[in-house]
From TrEMBL:
PANTHER family: 4-HYDROXYPHENYLPYRUVATE DIOXYGENASE (PTHR11959), 4-HYDROXYPHENYLPYRUVATE DIOXYGENASE-LIKE PROTEIN (PTHR11959:SF10). Pfam families: Glyoxalase. The lineage of its organism: Eukaryota, Metazoa, Chordata, Craniata, Vertebrata. InterPro entries: 4OHPhenylPyrv_dOase, 4OHPhenylPyrv_dOase_C, 4OHPhenylPyrv_dOase_N, Glyas_Bleomycin-R_OHBP_Dase, Glyas_Fos-R_dOase_dom, VOC_core. This is 4-hydroxyphenylpyruvate dioxygenase. It comes from Fundulus heteroclitus.
Length: 443
């Protein structure tokens, strides 16, 4: 049986310059640094904005990796594991015997990467046994970590997507703010006021860039192991083909899935917001015989399949994008004609937005044609729509980027927005990344 997930706990990144990313997350993306784990062998720093939590891990140098580093993939001989043998890490006294990357695994990926989506589950030992039975490989077997606030048990499972792994964590016996081993720097969660100028509340979706023809295998894996369910991005979407965007040179196949959150009983503060929606997962692969796209570029520069972007949900994209842009975030912008073309201008105005305001930061709007009356209450008038804006890649390579998304009743992804994003990225590749228009090759 699939292992039920309680909720997405955090997403972790491995970067060579943790300081640079930390400073960008705080000053540009308006995240708050709230917990740190600094040892002689590792630097792990946690940032949050609403329920969206990133943990930044600085990639350790080879010489810093100790002899007691966790095995890269635990062998299949631990099926009979019981909690009595689970490694136990007591914090505070034996810092030197701790793994360098607590709650995670360092995979020595050659470029900066977002590689772990950590989920809360209710019984890690049981999840471990069940997933092993279903054929999963684990990087870290069930391990218990404790401090004065209680204990958590975690395990790290290898996924079928490139370097992506999932930490499964049980926090039901933990009363602290974050995780044992982290020093919480921002103690008073209740005092945190909602950042009205940049209101980001949670992760909306995680998008994987995958090689051609791998979507089916990835989807099956998540369905079988974690009970993910397919959801249709578009009403006309073919069950096998997925949502195909195959016009004007784009060439993408998108398939989306989501998981059902199980009971939240016992989850420790501050994550008890009952209305917190689920995070969706999108699998993107490129189609043959089309121009090169963001997925191809990701696979080449990231050197493996993996997490291509993460969307941050906001209630006010105009304000959030404006605040971030003022702080130095660079967004992709569609060609100016996008906002003046009659159909789009009308769509924007009918949704109650000002095309000039959206154009300032490259915000895209797409009306949703699917009819689901239950979500109509969230939007003005009778049209459901969504607004999106995409940052330029945040690492040195053209790999990972962030997205802001504001949903007004629309649950999927806009085909028009994807085409507009594609045009923006093409222009960026040709003009900015390759040294400006003078080096553009005429075809
Ligand atoms: O539209 C979105 O936000 C998606 O997540 C779909 C998507 C996937 C891959 C791309 O390169 C561009 C867009
Ligand atoms: Fe997205």
């Amino acid at each position: 049986m699939a292992v039920p997930l309680r909720r997405l706990h955090h997403v972790s990144l491995f970067v060579s310059n943790g300081h640079k990313l930390a400073s960008d997350l705080v000053s540009k993306y308006k995240f708050n640094l709230f917990a740190t784990r600094l040892t002689d062998r590792s630097t792990q720093v946690a940032f949050r904005k609403g329920a969206a939590v990133f943990v930044v891990n600085e990639r350790p140098t080879q010489s810093a990796l100790g002899l007691n580093e966790w095995p890269q993939v635990a062998g299949n001989d631990r099926n009979d594991q019981n909690s009595a043998d689970a490694p136990r890490v007591s914090l505070g006294k034996h810092k030197r015997s701790q793994p360098s990357c607590l709650y995670d695994v360092h995979l020595d990926h050659p470029v900066d990467s977002v590689s772990n989506v950590c989920f809360e589950v209710s019984d890690v030992e049981r999840a471990f046994k069940e997933l092993r039975r279903l054929g999963c490989d684990f990087y870290v077997p069930p391990t218990t970590v404790e401090d004065e606030n209680g204990l958590v048990t975690y395990s790290v499972v290898k996924s079928v997507v490139g370097n992506v792994c999932h930490t499964l964590i049980d926090k039901t016996k933990y009363g602290g703010i974050f995780l044992p081993g982290f020093d919480v720097t921002e103690k008073d969660w209740d005092l945190e006021k909602e950042d009205l100028s940049c209101p980001v509340t949670h992760f909306d979706h995680v998008t994987y860039a995958c090689p051609r023809n791998s979507t089916h295998q990835v989807m099956k894996w998540y369905e079988k192991l974690f009970g993910f369910h397919r959801f249709f991005i578009d009403g006309d979407e073919d069950v096998d083909e997925g949502f195909v965007v195959n016009q004007e040179g784009v060439g993408l196949r998108l398939t989306a899935m989501e998981y059902w959150k199980c009971s939240k009983a016992g989850i420790s503060l501050p994550f008890t917001d009952k209305s917190e929606p689920d995070c969706k997962f999108v699998i993107a692969e490129s189609l043959p015989h089309q121009s090169r796209n963001q997925v191809d570029t990701f696979l080449e520069q990231h050197r493996a399949a993996g997490i291509q972007h993460i969307a941050l949900y906001t209630k006010n994209i105009v304000s959030a994008a404006h605040t971030m842009a003022e702080a130095g975030v660079q967004f992709f912008s569609p060609p100016p004609a996008y906002y003046t073309e009659v159909g789009k201008r009308q769509e924007i105005e009918e949704a109650g937005h000002d095309p000039r305001k959206l154009s300032e930061h490259g915000i895209l709007l797409d009306a949703d044609l699917q009819q689901d009356p239950s979500s109509l209450k969230e939007c003005s008038g009778n049209k459901r729509y969504l607004l999106q804006v995409f940052t330029k890649p945040i690492f040195a390579e053209d790999t990972f980027f962030l997205e802001l998304i504001e949903r007004r009743g629309a649950t999927g992804f806009g085909e028009g927005n994807i085409r507009a994003l594609w045009r923006s990225v093409q222009a960026y590749m040709e003009n900015e990344r390759e040294g400006g228009p003078q080096r553009k090759t005429v075809q």
